[in-house]
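User: Continuing from earlier, I have the next pair ready.

Assistant: Great, send them over.

User: Here they are, in order.

Assistant: Folding the first of the pair now:
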Amino acid sequence: MIKEGIEKILALSGSTSQIINDRTYENGPKGIIPILPPKAETLTINTLTGIKDYDPGAGEMLHILDHKTVNVISEDYADRWLTRNTYLTAVHESPVFKFGQYYDVEMFIIALQSLFVQDDITALILKLVGNIKDEGVSNFCDDGVTQQVKAKTGISLVSNVPVPNPVTLRPYRTFMEIQQPASTFVFRIKGNKDEAPLCALFEADGRMWRLKAIKEIKSWLEFELPGVKIIA
């Protein structure tokens, strides 16, 4: 009955099926692909705490796919075709700073305050960016809390604020239960007499932070779920 239903659906969609070694394959626009047996729907959550609440048991293990995805999967193969069941997937979702893209001063200040762990370095950058004179547009005096604007001409700094470059920052890029990994960025300001100043951060660590994040996720899970097999 199931086979007949599949064949009817394939016929209506313009696809055909064939059986190879007792397994049904679909021959469609994307080529020949196996038709997987019915499985329970995978639960999707957004936190590591949700995995702890799920409490993986015997026959289940954790697979840290990357810095923002962890799956609870079956330890043994689910069938003779060596597929595994995925019971639960935790996916980190949050706004992320757009590195390599220039922001205007106001949006840069907002993004730096809302998308990064605040520390002495973010304070220095905010002090620098919040005191930019944009000649031809206005004079920005913004410490992130209050703002004064005066008409001026040319781009200059209200005061000299030393900021190391590259800078070490901790953007929110992975699960909130762990410490956000720090990485280095090149900080740049550009502008001219006809344009408002623009600010940008460029990644400068070869994305090594992803490996740090995976290591931190594994450490958190090992502490909260002792005895559970974890693959990272």
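And the other member of the pair:
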Amino acid sequence: MSFPIERPRRLRRTEAIRALVRETRLATAGMLYPMFICPGRATRQEIRSMPGIRQQSVDCFLEEAREVEQLGIPGILLFGLPPRKDAQGSEAWSPDGVVPQAIRAVREAGLSLIVAADVCLCEYTDHGHCGVVEGQRVVNDASNERLAMAAHAYAQAGADIVAPSDMMDGRVAAIRTRLDGDGLEDTIIMSYAAKYCSALYGPFREAAESAPQFGDRRSYQMDPPNAREALREVALDLEEGADIVMVKPAIPYLDVIRRVRDAYAVPVAAYNVSGEYSMVKAAAANGWIDEKRVVLELLTGIQRAGADIICTYHAKDAARWLKA
């Protein structure tokens, strides 16, 4: 018998010892902070279902972007709320749209933040779907053309990363071709490669004002019971030119993160989504959980599963707690 020679508790005796032998070390260096940009000036609108998160005009956004940089968070992920919507989502590729304005503001301010821009049409279309609609059907190839136009607008404005989240087939190839054809070959594509049709996106739809006006997104986002299919989606996106692949949501799909991590030697991102965030905030507000311990445990679990990059609304709080 190994006892008493082997006593695993020896390595748990003090915090210093636990830290010394810790296998997973959570750090802000792998986090992106999502932000919502809206039209106007001096506009800062609280999102009811996401305490601490706001829709902000570019001037107010820039103030928070400076705070993000000071906290040691390396980058931000931008979502736009346009001044007007139409069936095509044309504000998504306007060079003067709110997201290009925000990107240019970061560059002109000299901030060192990595800027990633979400590429999707759902915030920009009057029907709320992630692509072009004919009747009540989301049309794949015509959607890809418009997604490539949007990615091009963000890259031209100075985005380091464009992040297609629509789940149209072939959209990574369309974006890569458009970017490379215009001398923007250094722009990184972080594809939402395995994005599930999840019930955890509800608060985001309030934040981005992007709820579909009919039907749902099950015909293009992934079916939650499927894991092998995620590997197929990741493989296709990598073949088309993706540099980073993402699994979304994070917490119910830790097994998928691990499968992707084991299968591919590329950076893997995970999105700790709005519903995951809001549940923690609600439980903490009711005194049911210790928010700090729960958030750091959840983020550590996502990283331990294999995520190199975590997109999380908790990033600012996590940065403060990790520095303490």
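Worth noting for the second one:
The chain has one domain: 26-215+227-323. DSSP finds eleven helices and twelve strands in the chain.
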